[in-house]
Amino acid sequence: PAPPALLPYVPRVPPAALPGKLTATTFALERPCCVFDRHANASDAVWLVVAFANASDAFRNPPSRADVPLYERLPTARSYMTLETAAAAYACSAPSPAVLRVGGDTACGDQGGWDPCNGPLPSPGPYRVKFLVMGCQGPKAETRWSDPILLRRAGSPSTIDPAPARRGSDVVVITSILASLGTVLAAAVLGAVGTEAWRSLCHRDSGTGTFARRSYRTHHIPPALPQPLPPGCRCSPPGLGCFAPRPPGPCPAE
């Protein structure tokens, strides 16, 4: 058969920030729209070939669907094919998601290895991918290989440094102590201000109260008692004294 047509399209991870664009077992790819319209019929299928970057040059396109390398052979064959999709799903007029998820099928073990699977990738890679159009007579067209795609590495628990946690605890303790000292200082300042204000109020109240309670006691002067007239004085109104001799005998009533 004739070799498949080489299309200028290069698969790539979306440049935009996406949740889960690269994980420890999966990665996202831009969906190839309007790429296969001139090289595929409605009955053709488009496959995604996934290979370790250092094994992509050794990959050979399978002559038929029965020869498609499966996901379970990745550790030994270093490549596999997945995401079998009708070519019409990638047509320009077909509504479709913007990205494809490679490695997103966690139920691959339940399929018995007979159907192509999109299982989680077993290592960070790096990997390279390409799209392959296959018809009844075998491969018809293919894209170029992507650049190497390196997944995230999961950290081993033994490599986690517990020191940041201890430093975090120390920071919390120091912060608590500083907060306590600040509270005590604020209480002392407020107490001093309150005491001074209280003294000022007491001093003001003490002066006013003393003035209000101050009393002046006058000497009690008893009324003057009438004094007896000396002998020989003329009767006169009481308190006027004697100013002339009087004749003997009692004073006439006034």
TrEMBL record:
Please give the InterPro entries that the UniProt record associates with this protein: Uroplakin-3
Q: Which UniProt keywords apply?
A: Membrane, Transmembrane, Transmembrane helix
What parts of the sequence cross the membrane?
171-194
State any GO CC term. Answer: membrane
- Superkingdom is Eukaryota
The name this protein carries in UniProt is UPK3B protein
Q: Which gene encodes it?
A: Upk3b
